[in-house]
Design goal:
disordered N terminus, Rossmann fold, 8 strands, 10 helices, about 230 residues, 5-stranded parallel beta sheet
């Protein structure tokens, strides 16, 4: 593990990684609110790029050059408010649309493209440079914030993760099929874990948290215990 620099120690950074549907975004958002610090959903950034490729009719697995040409035309912004986080793509609020199953798949596909990761890596690090943050994604503890004071790898069984995502979509009024949601999630697990660049894996110094069988309140309480212990030690 790399040693923390004085700049790293000036702010407290919490990295939460894990597979799709593990509850990273929901739990991180609630924890950030309780802690009074900034929450950064890096997955939303990849989803925004995935959505842009779908709208442009680009297949990220075959047309990498076209994705690279599209990137300069994308302006991705994240706005925070008491109501939560909103994601804007070229000025349009796409916070709901980026959660659709087909966008999830596209996000996983574009995440394998080096120039995409480079573009977002700089943005993510800049967001964490001057303030305490809790940031979730798939390579936060291993690549984006390797010197984070606390790294958590959040997971759950694929069946439970798929059911959580299915219920989330249905509650938002998005009609979907559970089996399709589950198969998309299994595809993302394989894709994210086997990609050559920044694959999904726990950092060597991360705390592994399995929330299978736990409801949201229980999961948040467990994460807050871990965070508070780390902050007190720090």
């Amino acid at each position: 593990m790399e040693r923390n620099t004085s700049e790293d120690m000036a702010t407290f950074k919490i990295a939460i990684d894990g597979p799709a549907g593990a509850g990273k975004s929901t739990i991180a958002k609630l924890a950030a609110r309780e802690l009074g610090i900034v929450y950064v959903d890096t997955g939303a950034m990849y989803r925004a790029i995935g959505l842009a490729t779908i709208r442009a009719g680009i297949n990220p697995n075959k047309d990498i050059a076209e994705v690279e040409e599209l990137l300069p035309q994308m302006n991705i912004e994240i706005a925070h408010s008491e109501g939560g986080q909103s994601v804007f793509l070229n000025g349009e609020d796409v916070s709901v649309e980026i959660r659709l199953p087909e966008v999830s798949v596209a996000a996983s596909d574009v995440s394998k493209i080096p120039v995409v990761r480079t573009k977002l890596l700089e943005l993510q690090r800049n967001l964490a440079e001057k303030t305490d943050v809790i940031m979730d994604g798939r390579d936060i503890g291993t690549v984006v914030l390797p010197n984070a004071q606390l790294k958590i790898f959040l997971t759950a069984s694929v069946e439970e993760r798929a059911m959580r995502r299915y219920r989330e979509l249905m509650e938002k009024g998005v009609e979907c099929d559970f089996d399709l949601v589950k198969s998309d999630m299994e595809y993302r697990d394989k894709n994210d874990s086997e990609r050559e660049i920044a694959p999904l894996k726990p950092a060597v110094d991360s705390v592994i948290v399995d929330t299978t069988g736990k409801n949201l309140d229980e999961s948040v309480e467990l994460i807050m215990q871990i965070i508070n212990e780390a902050r007190n030690i720090g």
